[in-house]
Amino acid sequence: MSKAALNYYTKALSLEEPKLITVALHPGWVKTEMGGDNALLSIEEASSAIIKRICLLKKEDSGKFMDSKMDLTP
């Protein structure tokens, strides 16, 4: 799925299901087979950051695309 399609789907789902908080979260550059050994974050670091961010989400965040620091991503 392209980034544009994911952003659209996230926004559409947030409007369709207003009781849910629906966001797209970018984990950062993670050391995986795809990210490679030079990536900045281990899988453990990235997943821990994402879990912490999920716990901080608010209703007004719904429909947004964010990185693991909760910064909006275009």
From TrEMBL:
Domain of life: Eukaryota
Gene Ontology terms for molecular function: oxidoreductase activity
Species: Meloidogyne incognita
Keywords from the UniProt entry: NADP, Oxidoreductase
GO cellular component entries: cytoplasm
Entry-linked InterPro entries: Fungal_SecMetab_SDRs, NAD(P)-bd_dom_sf
Entry protein name: C-factor
